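tl;dr need the bound structure. longer version: we got a ligand (iron/sulfur cluster) that a collaborator sent over and nobodys looked at where it sits. i said id run it. heres the input, straight from their email, havent touched it
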Amino acid sequence: MNPLSLNQRLASDRFLTDESASHITVDQELARSTGTAERLIAICPAGVYSRAADGSLAVEYAACLECGTCLAVADPGTLTWHYPAGGHGVQFREG
Ligand code: SF4
């Protein structure tokens, strides 16, 4: 049996999205002025952060893998992140 590639493992993940609230909030102005926005776009392995057409930072929280990497690169006060409310979020099926 061949081991799964990273992309195959990620494709097997399941997400139960909390449609009522995002578990990630961003201070748009502070994220822009500190450079945090660009770091978030570059570092998130799930592509949660992207540049919206209006120049703001778009946050597609439903795809979050809950790895916590964004917290390590965000300047203080730019990002609020907590685990999704009970039962929601990612379910890893393959390791
Ligand atoms: S916790 Fe990980 S996957 Fe989720 S937004 Fe932060 S860097 Fe991206």
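gonna send this back to them w/ a short note. The longest helix spans residues 36-43.
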